[in-house]
């Protein structure tokens, strides 16, 4: 059987979400925080960059043409992380996730053989999570996308336990994609908010899931970490040492932290073939999935070429290119 090429990190822009939250209390403060975190130089570049790419994120025909040019057969499409809106109250948050789930499903339904979708859940309101994930699955979506934390809550928060249980039982995919870094103004120049902030947030969030025992309690959870899991997979030795040397570090999880890397899926978007090789060595070739961050400028225009540059064996190349993702997405 021919192995499809599957990109698990691609985004859809949903203007109807922004129309929904426009003018609501809390939006202005959230945008001010985002502006402080990124800095004026980054915002001056990001605005035109996103506007130029809107057709690729909203028009299915344009998306498919771009996929053809990349040699990608199937995309797993998730909403732009700018749609999280974790500042929203319960009423607004419910409207946001319902609209995001329905709009993403409708986008993917225009090319069902080539597009699979992920929805959103409001991490800021744990009481809504089970209902929100159920709604996403009811729309035919494969799971949901979440950030690395919500205001005042880490992913280790016990309030999330029903959500993890439901996701595990349903076989839902959980795509961990950070948006914003709490280092704030320390990263407001040279686009450090993204280049340093994103991999930091990935590492912190995954560490919370590992050290708190979430992955012990939910061994069947299908978690995909964007950006190759950030700094954690290539610096996991420090975590292993702390787990062995300190009672506080080892109190929450049953096994060596590095062993949990083989329970997590990672996308291949690390921008360096040597780092990709190290990720595969740490997690296993069967836990790495092709990812491009389509169509943003911090992604790669040729994800298959970037994978080829790692000089993997044929078996490992085909596994990462699509063999690992195909069963996760239940591709025929």
TrEMBL record:
Keyword field contains Lyase: yes
Record's keyword terms, sorted: Lyase
Pfam families in the cross-refs: Amidohydro_2
InterPro entries, sorted: ACMSD, Amidohydro-rel, Metal_Hydrolase
SUPFAM superfamilies: Metallo-dependent hydrolases
Limits of the Amidohydrolase-related domain: 6-331
Organism: Streptomyces argenteolus
Protein name: Amidohydrolase family protein
PANTHER family: 2-AMINO-3-CARBOXYLMUCONATE-6-SEMIALDEHYDE DECARBOXYLASE (PTHR21240), ISO-OROTATE DECARBOXYLASE (EUROFUNG) (PTHR21240:SF28)
């Amino acid at each position: 059987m021919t192995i499809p090429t599957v990109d698990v990190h691609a985004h859809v822009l949903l203007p109807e979400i922004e129309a929904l939250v426009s003018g609501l209390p809390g939006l202005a403060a959230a945008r001010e925080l985002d502006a402080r975190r990124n800095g004026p130089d980054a915002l001056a570049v990001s605005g035109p960059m996103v506007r130029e790419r809107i057709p690729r994120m909203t028009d299915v025909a344009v998306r498919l043409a771009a996929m053809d040019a990349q040699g990608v057969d199937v995309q797993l499409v998730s909403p732009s992380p700018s749609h999280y809106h974790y500042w929203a109250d319960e009423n607004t948050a419910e409207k946001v996730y319902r609209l995001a789930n329905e709009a993403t499903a409708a986008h993917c339904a225009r090319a069902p053989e080539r597009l699979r979708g992920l929805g959103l859940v409001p991490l800021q309101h744990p009481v809504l999570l089970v209902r929100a994930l159920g709604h996403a699955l009811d729309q035919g979506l494969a799971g949901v996308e979440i950030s690395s934390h919500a205001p005042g809550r880490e992913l280790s928060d016990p309030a999330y336990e029903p959500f993890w249980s439901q996701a595990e039982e349903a076989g839902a995919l959980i795509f961990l994609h950070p948006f914003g870094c709490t280092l704030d103004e320390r990263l407001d120049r040279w686009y450090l908010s993204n280049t340093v902030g994103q991999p930091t947030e990935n590492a912190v969030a995954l560490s919370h899931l590992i050290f708190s025992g979430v992955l012990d309690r939910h061994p069947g959870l299908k978690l995909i970490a964007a950006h190759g899991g950030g700094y954690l997979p290539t610096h996991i030795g420090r975590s292993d040492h702390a787990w062995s040397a300190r009672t506080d570090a080892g109190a929450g999880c049953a096994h060596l932290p590095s062993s949990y890397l083989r329970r997590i899926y990672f996308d291949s978007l690390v921008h360096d073939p040597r780092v990709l090789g190290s990720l595969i060595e740490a997690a296993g070739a069967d836990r790495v999935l092709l990812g491009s961050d389509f169509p943003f400028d911090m992604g790669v225009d040729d994800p298959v070429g970037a994978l080829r540059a790692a000089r993997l064996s044929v078996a490992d190349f085909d596994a990462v290119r699509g063999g690992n993702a195909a069963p996760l997405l239940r591709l025929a």
